[in-house]
Design a protein that fits this description.
By secondary structure, this protein is mainly alpha-helical. The chain folds into 3 domains: 51 residues, no CATH class; 50 residues, no CATH class; 88 residues, no CATH class. The chain contains 8 helices and 2 strands, in the order ββαααααααα. The protein has a two-stranded antiparallel sheet. The mean pLDDT is 85.
Amino acid sequence: MTTINPAVNTAAVMTVKSFFKKAKAGANIGKKRADMNWNFAGVNSETVATLDAAAVAKVVNGFIEAYGRKLIATNGDDWNFEPTIETCNFELAYADLTAARTNSRVLTKETLTKLGDLYLAVMVRSGTVEVKAANTVRSLIIDKFASVMGKTDVLAVLRSRIDQFCDHATEEELESIADVVEAVAALLDELAAPQEVTVDSI
């Protein structure tokens, strides 16, 4: 049974999902924690007015700074790029956040190609798979797994390949496409899940 603290506004309780990499140290080295849905006491339009204004400003500035760092990572090949007040502000950071919440807006041809190319580079560099196999997965990523729909065994292996990719990619590499990786992982989980069809559902 879950007990809710009376001081927490249940209307502001948020639920999110976390994906994990294999532990590289500690008691669980070499193991991967299962994906997890978890809750936190968030803020809504009613409760935000009760918070300390200086604290809110600090949190919001941290949020905007994180967006700026994401822009730098996204434009990693352009060494002349730097965020400005015109390109890095609350409105744009918020627009990016809300866009990232919708898989259809995250998994575009452009972002899938970027992930596919990075997947190929990381997996070959790490020696995890042969170039041919890495290229096959790259093509499946770009194609949004259309050719393997319904093949639960293949989808399960692809999901494990994404985990391996995350284990071998650097933090800098993952930072610019974290939302894409999360969306792809969620998509593979959804596609691989057994679909129960009943009379009522059709």
